[in-house]
Each structure stands twice: as structure tokens, then as C-alpha cells.
Design brief:
Arc Repressor Mutant, subunit A, about 210 residues, two-stranded antiparallel ribbon, Helicase, Ruva Protein, domain 3, two-stranded parallel ribbon
Length: about 210
């Protein structure tokens, strides 16, 4: 089950009732059916911030959050990148019937240094693209997507006196430090979660 704070309030209420009262009613039906379901829900959004913003029910948030497992973003577990690269490489090469077997040291270094805002799915697509354009058994830097190769975060950018650039960098650092937890990042930045959400939209950060 994928959870999104954009789900309509009426749907959230029905889901809460199903979880809390353990009963449902089929569409168009009148009879109440008892259910005993175990729910595993996943989301890439900060539901706590959605609760604070009034777009997600707090009682549903607590009902779904009985036991929470936080999966850190790929940039926080870079040791997972090489085995994931190998897995995606083998699968893509087999599917496309291409003799691409390894990743050069320079290409792997670029993959390790990239921030991966799209997490594992972005990495998978990057390797698929590299396999498609590779003209040798080894993936080289030139085969990787431009955004992976481009060095956006240069020392000059970090030392910029531009206030907006500094604000964007501070928000990125806070989100990195707290693994995307917007509530904790907002507290560290001494702003509200609503302000953080607005700033993230302004700077094109996150989803």
C-alpha cells in the first residue's frame, strides 16, 4: 500500500475506519463486512509535515505509524551503490543482449560521488542508459547521464555570497543530515515545516 498525503479526506476517513473498526462496505453495497487485515504502507513523502500542513489526518498518521522503518536515501548509504550497480548492470545487459560486463573505476567514482536525488530508481535508470550507449564491455564516464557527470556542487558554489544559494544549500544540508525528515530539518533550520515545504518547492528540492 502506497500512502500519499494528497489522498482525498473522504478516502482517508474510510481507510481509517477500515483500520480502526475493522470493517468495510463494498461500493454500492449496504452490508458491513468484517475484516482483519495487516497493513504494510510505504511513502516517500513526509507525512508528519503533511499533518502539520493540514493535508493528512493525524489520527490516520498514528494508526499507520505503529511501527516505522525509515530507509535512508541512497546518498546516506553509499556502500550499497557498487552491489546495486552490478545487479542493474547484469540485468540490463541480459535484457538488451549486450556484452557489457564491468564499470570502469572512473565511472564508479562518478556514481559514488553523485547525490542520487531519485534514489535507487534513478540509479537503475542511469545504468540502463549507460548499457544502451556503451560501445565496449566496460561502462565509461561518457556513458553515464549528464547530471551524474556534471559537478554542480563546486567549491565556488558553496562559497557563494548569493543569499538564495546559501539558503538552498542550508536546506539541502539539513535534509541530508536528517535523511529527508522534514520535521527535524525544519527544527534545525529554525523554521516551520510549512515554510520548509514552500522553500523546497521554490528551489525544486524533493518531490
Amino acid at each position: 500500500m502506497v500512502v500519499d498525503e494528497k489522498v482525498a479526506p473522504t478516502v482517508q476517513a474510510k481507510l481509517l475506519r477500515a483500520l480502526q473498526e475493522r470493517e468495510i462496505r463494498r461500493v454500492g453495497g449496504e452490508a458491513t463486512i468484517k475484516v482483519n487485515a495487516r497493513v504494510v504502507a510505504a511513502t516517500n513523502r513526509d507525512l508528519r509535515a503533511a499533518v502539520d500542513a493540514g493535508t493528512f489526518r493525524e489520527d490516520l498518521y498514528f494508526r499507520l505509524g505503529a511501527f516505522v522503518i525509515t530507509v535512508p536515501p541512497l546518498r546516506e548509504r553509499r556502500e550499497d551503490i557498487p552491489p546495486l550497480v552490478h545487479h542493474f548492470l547484469v540485468r540490463a545487459a541480459s535484457r538488451m543482449k549486450k556484452d557489457v560486463r564491468v564499470v570502469s573505476a572512473d565511472a564508479m567514482a562518478a556514481l559514488m560521488n553523485y547525490a542520487w536525488p531519485g534514489n535507487v530508481r534513478e540509479l537503475e535508470h542511469a545504468i540502463e542508459r549507460a548499457v544502451i550507449v556503451a560501445n565496449s564491455p566496460s561502462i565509461r564516464v561518457r556513458d553515464l547521464p549528464p547530471e551524474v557527470i556534471r559537478k554542480d556542487r563546486s567549491p565556488a558554489a558553496r562559497d557563494s555570497l548569493d543569499l538564495q544559494q546559501q539558503e538552498k544549500t542550508a536546506i539541502e544540508r539539513a535534509l541530508d543530515r536528517y535523511a529527508g525528515n522534514r520535521k527535524r530539518a525544519a527544527e534545525a533550520l529554525n523554521i516551520s515545516t510549512v515554510t520548509l515545504w514552500r522553500k523546497m518547492k521554490q528551489y525544486g528540492l524533493g518531490s
